[in-house]
UniProtKB/TrEMBL annotation:
Pfam families, A to Z: DUF2024 (PF09630)
InterPro entries for this protein: DUF2024, NE1680-like_sf
Protein name: DUF2024 family protein
Listed Gene3D superfamilies: NE1680-like
Organism, scientific name: Colwellia demingiae
High-level lineage: Bacteria, Pseudomonadati, Pseudomonadota, Gammaproteobacteria, Alteromonadales
Superkingdom as given in the UniProt entry: Bacteria
Length: 81
């Protein structure tokens, strides 16, 4: 499965730096920002506490089995860096 990697950087208002990749297939590429927001919400980071953020396309690659499973079950995979 070919996937697309979106390199995501967030700086919270309190100064916390969070770096992660959002991995999606062609069908879910328009949902990348939603998946990033959901991930941050799961970490307890409210959108109104974000000072700056960027989520940029990085590259495409072949997915490993774990990422394929994540995308099949939830539409995306997140890798915390």
């Amino acid at each position: 499965m070919q996937i697309h990697v979106f390199d995501t950087h967030v700086m919270t208002a309190s100064g916390e730096y969070i770096h992660f990749d959002v991995l999606v297939n062609n069908e879910n590429i328009k949902e990348v920002e939603q998946y990033a927001k959901q991930y941050l919400d799961g970490l307890g980071v409210a959108i109104d506490n974000i000072k700056q953020s960027r989520c940029n396309f990085c590259h495409s690659e072949l997915a490993n089995l774990e990422v394929e499973g994540d995308i099949a079950s939830q539409g995306h995979s997140i890798i915390r860096l």
